[in-house]
Specification:
Shape: elongated
Oligomer: single chain
Number of helices: 23
Distance between the termini: 71 Å
Number of strands: 18
Helix content: 25-40%
Structural class: alpha/beta
Radius of gyration: 28 Å
Strand order of the largest sheet: 11-14-17-10-18
Strand content: 15-25%
Length: 527
Amino acid sequence: MPVARTRAVALVGLAGSIVEVEADLSSQLPAFVIIGLPDAALGEARERVRSAATNAGCALPSRRLTVNLSPASLPKHGSAFDLAIALACLAAAGSVDAESVGRFVHLGELGLDGRLRPTHGILPAVLAAVRAGHERIMVPVANAAEARLVPGAEIVAVATLREAVERHGGDPGPAPHRLGDAASVTETSDATPSPPFVPDGDLADVLGGEEAIQALLVAAAGGHHLLLAGPPGAGKTMLASRLPGILPDLEPDAALEVACLRSLAGHPIGETLSVRPPFEAPHHTASAAAMVGGGSRVIRPGAAARASHGVLFLDEAPEFPANVLDALRQPIESGRISIHRANSVATFPARFQLVLAANPCPCGGGDSPEEACACPPAAKRRYFARISGPLLDRVDLRLWVNRVTPSRLAIERDRALEPGAAPTLTSRAARERVISARAAAAERLSGTPWRTNAEMPGPWLRGAGGLHPGSKATRALDLSLERGGVTMRGYDRVLKVAWTIADLEGAERPDHQHVGRALMMRGGVPA
């Protein structure tokens, strides 16, 4: 057969495009040429494929092989095309059934001995293939578990090129040497599959922080961004780490998207989809590329993208470089991250909840008289001003967290011992309240593309949403806007928080008290 065809998938961000792999065998001087805009790693597939075929007992003929990756204008990256190139070449040589090869999408990297090695991004690649109408996909054994997470995919897992040839009706000759055992084929490293990291701890562990717990409930119920400011040891990190535990489980589509991001980033997936929201807490030395994504060749998702449908926690926020913090401004508004390169644009989801934690000054002192702060007022202003005003304006809730004193602990203990005292709020009970509030918001927003209060746009909120400027409910907020206390963006965000407070309390719509409390929650920390 002069020309044989099969398919592979080219990923740009999470978007996958079907690539037709064509192999032509001609009677010319022996050569192996790959065309169609391959990168350096893909160009090296010539040597991997030729050696793997020889060591698998089905050597390629000593003739000119031309492999075309179509569409030729689409950039192709990485080594996941190896299996498709090898089988297309063998089909052109007549070593395997060309019709069988043409019915499959092939993904996987070849070792020189013919073993199939796993590659990053198998899950989004399989998802792209199924959405394009190609359900039959052949993948390495080590990637089979995550590939089978895609509904409707017919996955064929193979450990070696020889096994793939036999699966397509070929009859390879004896292999020059024996391959390693199955464990060496299926294991990528000593890393074991694990679900996304979610911090341990229960909300009941938080003592003496009713206002902080209430703010956490509001943030979880409405999907709002949160700033926690206060002296060291006040419990800011402890509070932030409890937020994922009170968020509801992910919907199937969201869980699959989170798993795709983890797969593309090279993180293990496991055999089942994790339905718990992800939690990302990058160190304050992270670069802008580490935060939003990037890469010199293959564009990988950053911490903000991996936190999509979950929580992005920036501890010691003023210590982050200003350009890293400001890189989050556009994703917060649009809910997506677009990374532009000269020949492509990669887009990642970025629907995360941002939680910032900050000390009030470089020495960490607070504003109480007992704390000896050596920082002058100008130093305090400069330190907190590292979080830019436009970023702070996008944060819905700003809370000052005080240290817990022995007297406060004694009051909490006595209150808990009183007859009929309410039990301590646990993460399970808080999650039930959050789920109930989100259900109320989803019912109210049925027929719209939004499901949480944080997603509602301002024009709709002030129109069909029912909270009109100039009404009795918004009187205090209108006055704050008139005096420059809030921006128009801040105005809308206060209304969103007011709706969330009303949903938590089971109210039909927010009144002036809800709006007033939302305004206070926004003004807890000076901008």
